[in-house]
Amino acid sequence: MSGSSSVVAMKKVVQQLRLEAGLNRVKVSQAAADLKQFCLQKAQHNPLLPGVSSSTNPFRPQKVCSFL
Q1: What's the pLDDT tens digit per position in 30-68?
Q2: Can you tell me the distance from the alpha carbon of 46 to that of 57, in angstroms, rounded to the nearest whole number?
Q3: In Å, what is the CA distance from 21 to each residue of 10, 17, 25, 30, 46?
């Protein structure tokens, strides 16, 4: 039984490798350029880049109030 299960497993591996070999690839330089362009286009709508004003920041340190 282990011989036939090994053959079945190898057939699955070969099928997966054939599938992966048929995929269209994008060069890393092209993918990086596309990602950079996308980030620059969306930068104006990203609140983390320009920062949040301290008056509207809900996570700012609370002012200490002390009664003497």
Answers
A1: 999 999 999 999 988 887 777 767 777 777 777 777 766
A2: 15
A3: 16, 6, 9, 20, 37
